[in-house]
Design a protein that fits this description.
The complex is a heterodimer of chains A (268) and B (336). Chain A is mostly helical and 268 residues long. Chain A is built from 12 helices and no strands. The mean pLDDT of chain A is 90. Helices cover 32% and strands 31% of the residues of chain B. The C terminus of chain B is likely disordered. Classes of the chains: A mainly alpha (268), B alpha+beta (336).
Amino acid sequence: MKTSRPARWSLRVVALGYLIALLGTPVVLILWRTFEPGLGTFLASVKTPAAISALNLSLLIVAIVVPLNVIFGVVTALALVRGRFRGRGLLQAVVDLPFAVSPVVVGVSLILLWGAGGWFGALDRAGFKVIFGLPGMVLATLFVTLPFVVREVEPVLHEIGTDQEQAAATLGANGWQTFWRITLPALRWGLTYGVVLTVARALGEFGAVIMVSSGFAGVSQTLTLLVHARYVDDQNTYGAYAAATLLMGLAVLTLLLMSVLNRKRRTT
Amino acid sequence: MITVTGAHKSYGTFKALDGVSVDIPAGSLTALLGPSGSGKSTLLRSIAGLEDLDGGSVVINGKDVTGIPPQQRGIGFVFQHYAAFKHMTVRDNVAFGLTIRKRPKAEIARKVDELLEIVGLDGFQHRYPAQLSGGQRQRMALARALAVDPEVLLLDEPFGALDAQVRADLRRWLRRLHDEVHVTTVLVTHDQEEALDVADRIAVLNKGRIEQIGDPEVLYDRPANDFVMSFLGQVAHVNGRLVRPHDIVLTRDRNEAYAADAAVKGSPGVITARVDRVVRLGFEVRVELTADSSEQLEVQVTRAAAEALALDPGETVYARAAHTPDAWETDPALAI
């Protein structure tokens, strides 16, 4: 389509203005507020025992969620693409459920299921805390991050087809060898994307996690919960900014990793 | 030697193989020729073990491999779309089968280099498939299949995705390769020219059945039925019968035509036709005719014959069959 010069420029101005107003301003504001009192103040605020504990907990959840999502995501994607079974359409819809359901609802349903009065409440009464413990937070994060690996791997599986795997079979490779030497390497970029998205979402998840966490500072606060607690409960506005900046830093790191990988993908 | 007996395979209500039995002699290069949906690819994939037969058996070199997975059949398979391992270099692609078999590194390296030289990809060891042309990729796939010393080599429309010139080069190259390596080879194709060019035996398939199998000349000269005749080579209709365009004789003189025709056993008769067009195709001349019955036919004559006749559009000519395949069929001495 051909557009005139003034039209082109005004489109750019509108698009950029929109982005700056909605995305740029809040981010810059937080960064400015964080570093205004100096780097030392920032470091002191993110080095408190509660902040370090929150960072560790967030990273621990990521470390548990990512491998589980990789394994089950690849298996689910394989089932969706290659499987010929009844209820495949239903599975397709279920995979997208976390996109549609509000995280708060996820939290509530987890409590109904695993809480003291829930279906699996016996576990809770026996002393194994799922709700208000780490398992609950992991379950909540797993739920909201479930689609990412599946949805990134699925199109790649469609694209590569089964020719390469059949070729491997005729060359003597058994199912396991074919999976490790052919299928998995072919999926590597889709998988990497899925993992990056999972990490970003797991770090940023708030709604579902707050429902199932006991929220004790230094014990069961993730970074997002720390931001919330500092701002709302402690009236520690500066502390909230600092923790938010730390969270953003991790997100930016993940995004950078993704664009670096993306560039690498295009060159090979 | 491959022996398929009574092979049946259905996809839902569609019968891909409907009782196929075929012997493929050791060391031959056999083409499975047929239109799409004729079952030729299904037959090949059943020999490879990539499809399970609903009924029947496959025996490779005396060993019944029915129900045995492809890994243990001792086959090499080449796919239409190369099936190159994209994340591996050419060297690793070709070495794959040997690596799986845990052969010593030195042996693998030697064998891979040797094969790459045979297929003309020497110096491409460290390239990735994406950096190769279609023809090169298929030659790599062939080297990869040959690396494991297969008892039989199976090729599924191997040149189908390539352009005409590369295709012609590659099949001549395959023919030479086969003369050197002598591995029993089965090639699936829908291109009759390719089958005639490469194979020393052709099996014509149609609707899940084998119509005829034999040497290319036999199939061309003595087709078992109209399907084989029209699928392998060109045909013209003379009074409703199929005749090869180059087996039709044109004469200006009516009496001469009828006299000559009387001598041909089982002849379809003489037709009176009008010349529509005379096309010179190098050595050959194609004469396009419309018969009295308003049937269209094309006749191939040599340049000398065309010059002697000196035909112009609009003129009347008498066409007859010099001999007919039907005549061959009815002669028991020539039966296949």
